[in-house]
Structures are given as C-alpha cells and as structure tokens.
Design goal:
alpha+beta, NADH Oxidase, 8 helices
C-alpha cells in the first residue's frame, strides 16, 4: 500500500470482529513498526505488552469500560455537540462495551521517556495496521486506572502506560476522516501569514 494512501485512510476503527483472529506474525510486524519510530538519542524506550489471553482481555476491558463511562459524560452533557462528534461518542460507547472482546490489545509502555519518543512509534504501528488490513484505535482513557492496569499485567510501578490499542479486523469500511485543507492550516514565514500575503509582504519589503 502506498504510504500516502495509508496516511489518508488510517482512522480509528472501534468496531472489530471478535471472531477473526490476528496472526502472531502480524502482531510482530506491528511491534517492529513501532520500534522503528524516531526517539531521542536512539534510546528506544518503547515496550509493548501484547494481551491475547481471554481472561486478561476481559478484565482489561472492564477497567476500560469504567474509565470510558467516567469520561463520556463530558461529551454527552454538551448539547452543542455536532452530529459527527455524537457519532464518535456512539462509536466510543461500542468500544467501551467490547474492548475486552478485541482479538488483541496492545499496551504501549515506556520508562523515563518523553512522549515525543513514544507517540511517533505508535503512529507507525497504526499505519502498519492499516497496511495489513487491521483496525486499530489509539486510546488513553485507561490511564484513569493506570495502577489497576499495571497490577493486572505485572507492569512495574515506574513504567508509564502511554496507550491502549485494540487490534483486529474491522467490521466497518476504511475511509478518509474529514480534515481541514492545507491552505487553512499553513502559514508561510510567520504566524497567520498565508502564502499569497507572505509573497506580497516580501515584495513590498524588497522595494
């Protein structure tokens, strides 16, 4: 798959087929992609805990559901929420109820690491999932009960969990999430200087 197509069409896939298993070789490829993300000083701090045991997934799913139910109120109580955002909440509700049924759950961890050395690798993992036809979602709401996650999975207390990522074959369709056009978000040679105005400014200065 072309890398630009993967970038355009990688989106949160929260509805996964619980009956279609993910090959171990593909899980290894996802982790390998994550390890190849940029990180400060090539310290390679990222560690991945792969959860496939049904009981562990169920218990991890219960923790996640509790955390999601806590945070979802801030969305549901907002009467101005746009329809698109409401769809995201409904999708989040589905994941909250079914996280423990995901074929694989990956917990991304690191010790003494700056987030800038962790999240680029996570993005690599998501893109690799798209290339393999695997749905993924970057979630962090579990951190409300991070100590419970650590205890469940035997993660040392000085190791931070940066993301919880369900992995599986999506039941929905791939597609491009709506994004602002480049011209609306790009400034040239200064804040709030659009391309045309920067050229005009440069021309006036040269005179």
């Amino acid at each position: 798959m072309d890398v630009f197509e993967a970038i355009r069409t990688t989106r949160a896939m929260r509805r996964l087929d619980p009956y279609k298993q993910v090959a171990e070789s593909d899980i290894v490829r996802l982790v390998d992609a994550a390890m190849r993300g940029p990180n400060g000083g090539n310290t390679q701090p990222v560690r991945c805990v792969i959860v496939t045991d049904p009981d562990l997934k169920l218990r991890l799913g219960e923790i996640y559901r509790d955390c999601w139910n806590y945070f979802r109120g801030s969305y549901v109580d907002d009467s101005t929420l746009a329809e698109q955002a409401q769809r995201v909440v409904r999708s989040g509700d589905h994941l909250g109820e079914h996280m423990g049924e995901s074929p694989v759950i990956i917990v991304v961890c690191a010790r003494d690491a700056h987030p800038a050395s962790v999240y680029p690798g996570i993005q690599n993992l998501l893109l690799a999932g798209r290339a393999l036809g695997l749905g993924t979602t970057l979630t962090t709401v579990h951190t409300r009960r991070e100590e419970d996650v650590r205890r469940l999975l035997g993660i040392p207390g000085d190791v931070k969990t940066y993301a919880l990522i369900p992995v599986g074959y999506p039941t929905g369709r791939w597609g491009e999430a709506p994004r602002r056009p480049v011209d609306e978000v790009t400034y040239w040679n200064g804040w709030r200087v659009m391309r045309g105005s920067s050229e005009q400014a440069a021309d006036s200065v040269s005179r």
